[in-house]
Design a protein that fits this description.
single chain; alpha+beta; Nucleoside Triphosphate Pyrophosphohydrolase; 3-stranded antiparallel beta sheet
């Protein structure tokens, strides 16, 4: 077992359903993560740009992090969004889904939320190792940026954006159907 502040790596003996045994199967143990698609009253998505050493470049991402202490998922997420971006919302975060990050080699999950009607209320409160630039994009046009590779991002941001877009479209369709029945 290798332990670090970021996560642990353990070596297991893994027996597959077929009976084949892999004597040295390595599992990355990480805390669960939370992330959020943050959309302002002006329909802008709030992203953070930061350097990622493993990717050797700067990436645009949705605000994310892990819970601290006894925080609930929502409390941890609200804190992370506030610290990284200075944004908040008076509306309760909407839970969009929970997914295994990479069950082939990792044991953690990411829980994705949606913040609507967000506004900037604070200055960033970054750790010494964080250098984060806040970037706003038109929410509806950001999907085109993703699909044409005009921005560098990672899978969690793409997934979160598509979940949020689907949720918003579903609510618009429900509202349209309900209002047309009246």
């Amino acid at each position: 077992m290798h332990k670090s502040p970021f996560g642990n790596i353990r070596k297991d003996s893994c027996e597959l359903p077929t009976g084949v045994v892999i004597d040295e199967y390595y599992v990355n143990e990480y805390s669960d993560w939370v992330n959020a698609v943050v959309i302002t009253k002006e329909n802008k998505i709030v992203l953070v740009e930061q350097y990622r050493h493993a990717g050797e470049d700067f990436y645009l991402e949705v605000p994310a992090g892990k819970k601290e202490g006894n925080e609930t998922d929502e409390e941890g997420l609200i804190r992370e969004v506030k610290e990284e971006t200075g944004y908040t919302s008076l509306k309760k975060p909407i839970f969009l889904g929970e997914f295994m990050v990479n069950p082939a080699t990792q044991n953690n999950k990411v829980k994705t939320f949606l913040f609507l009607d967000a506004f900037k209320a604070y200055e960033q409160d970054l750790d010494e190792t964080e250098d984060i630039k806040v970037v706003l994009f038109d929410f509806d046009r950001f999907g085109n940026q993703l699909t044409t590779a005009k921005v560098k991002t990672q899978l969690f941001t793409s997934n979160a954006y598509l979940l949020a877009k689907n949720h918003i479209a579903g609510n618009i369709n429900k509202n349209s159907i309900l209002s047309s029945d009246v």
